[in-house]
Amino acid sequence: MPRNEIMSIGELIVEIMRKEVDVPLSEAGDFVGPFPSGAPAIFADQAARLGHSVGFIGACGDDDFGDCLVARFEADGVDASPVARISDVATGCAFVTYFSDGDRRFLFHIANSAAGFLPEPTPDMFEGVKWLHICGSTLSAGEEMRTRCYQACELTVAAGGKVSLDPNLRPELLGGEEAVRQVCKPVVDVASLLLPSSSEAEILAGVSGSDAACRSLLDSGAEVIALKQGSDGCKVYSADEEVEVPAFTVEAVDPTGAGDCFDAGFVVGLLEEMSLQDVGRLANACGGLGATKKGPMEGAAFRADVEEFIAAH
Q1: How far is CA 303 from CA 76, 99, 261, 289, in A?
Q2: Is 260 a catalytic residue?
Q3: Fewer CB in 10 Å around end: N or C, the chain?
């Protein structure tokens, strides 16, 4: 077995959140945390909890928050050896508050933190790697982060692996839809799996309508498109079939990280050569369970719990 079957690269942060809803971050109030977070880190932890060897390329401070992140990876079996510990900047963090209407407000401290200092990927990190996962949040975090992601993609493909992309990008932060396409293009060009929402699929393809956009992305080279549809589940596209997979009903407590758990379930399902229907069910189960606990990574479920959940539904 290779050292790592799956690799993830990107930001490592902790989240500190309000204990109660409807308390603005501008007011005094109680917080709980820190909770390990960062979209690519949540993906990595969920994939490891599903029973696969996973490595993570990132950076955190040589501080207590960094200890929190590395300890979580070590507890769940994520290979943290490529994680750099930086002594002269702090670990990135986000303060979060929730509102009764379902809205969330984040206050990020990332730009001048260790989260923005990705180690340069090297060929030895990708020996035997079958999947590399890229998150749009990392691509939107600056030129250096993008460059590291592009390098990781090149090394993965050169080693015979495949690339997955969750294009979780906000056009308003990057200067519009064309800017999003340009930022994502080096990854989209080599990606075997894309995991967009309807609007993200339309932006990436430059085509109106999610069905047409997903088919266009397939024609452009992707092998599988997993269209995320929230409470409606997902629709999976490949050259040979289109499969609609309904969502599982759960009581949502914290939606942060649910999409990253979905991504991990999908990649693991493809790695295990499941049917697209079963891949979608595994991903939907991971995504649903990911929303049932407070804390962005706390809903990442172990394999036995995921299988029990699927069997019960």
Answers
A1: 12, 32, 12, 12
A2: yes
A3: N
DSSP state of 95: E
- Say which of 260, 263, 278, 305 is annotated catalytic: 260
**Long-range contact list for 249-252, CB < 8 A, 24+ apart?**
249/288, 249/313, 250/288, 250/289, 250/291, 250/292, 251/292, 252/291, 252/292
The 3-state DSSP composition of the chain as helix, strand, coil percent (nearest 5) reads: 40, 25, 35
The tokens describing 259, both together, are 């999409």
Contacts of 260 (CB under 8 A, 6+ apart): 39, 40, 42, 43, 46, 135, 166, 290
pTM, 2 dp = 0.94
Burial 165-179 (b: 16+ CB within 10 A, else e): bbbbbebeebeebee
DSSP symbol at 304: H
Handedness of CA 220, 223, 228, 233 (dihedral sign): positive
Check residue 254 and give its pLDDT: 84
DSSP state of 197: B
137 closest CA partner among 154, 119, 161, 116: 116
pLDDT tens digit string along 193-217? Answer: 999 999 999 999 999 999 999 999 9
Closest C-alpha among 106, 72, 43 to residue 287:
43
Domains of the chain: 6-10+38-90+118-312 (3.40.1190.20)
> Which pLDDT value is given to residue 171?
65
**Which helix or strand (DSSP H or E) is residue 235 part of?**
strand 234-238
Higher pLDDT, 175 or 24: 24
User: Using 50, 70 and 90 to split pLDDT, how confident is the model at 294?
Assistant: confident
What's the average model confidence in pLDDT over 51-75? 96
